[in-house]
Amino acid sequence: MAENSAAEEAPAKKGKLKLIIMLVLVVVLAIVLSVVGTLWFLGGSLPGMAGDDDPSAEETAEEVFVPSTYVELDKALVTTVQAGGRQRYAQVHLSLEAKDPQALAAAELHMPLIRSQLVTVLGSSQFNELQTPEGRRALAEQMSSTVNQVLEQEGEPAIERVLFRNFVVQ
Description:
Distance between the termini: 128 Å
Order of helices and strands: HHEEEHHHHE
Mean pLDDT: 84
Radius of gyration: 38 Å
Helix content: 55-70%
Structural class: alpha+beta
Largest sheet: 4 strands, antiparallel
Number of helices: 6
Number of strands: 4
Low-confidence stretches: none
C-alpha cells in the first residue's frame, strides 16, 4: 500500500514543474510582446536598427547654412518723383541678395532690363511715401518682386531681396 501512494505523488511534482515553466514562459513572452508593441506604436525602433538608413533623416541632416551673396548695382538709380504737382529728385544705390549664386549671375546678365524696370518702379513712387520707413520698405519689396519677375521670365532662380545702400530724396 505504501508503494502505491509514493508512485502517485511523483507525477504530481512533475505536473507542477511543467506548470511553473509554462507560466514563466508566458510571462516572458508577454513582456517581450509588450516591449515590441510599444516600440511599434510609438513609430520608433531600437537604436542601430533599420530606421537609421531613412532618406528623410539624411535630408534633415544635410540642411546646411548657406550664406547670402550680394551683387551691387554699380551706378545709382536716379529719377524724378511726383510730390503735390512738383517734381522731386530720388537717388537709390542698390544691392541684390540671394542664396543661389546662379540667381545673381542671371541678374548681372539681365541687368539692363532689371535697371530699366527698377527706374520705372522708383519713378512711379510718391514722394511722401518715400520719406517714411514703411514707404521705403514697401518700395524695396516692390523692387524685389520686379527683379524676380524679370528673372522668372528668363527662367532663372529668384533673388531673396533688394537692399538700399544709400537713399536720397529731395
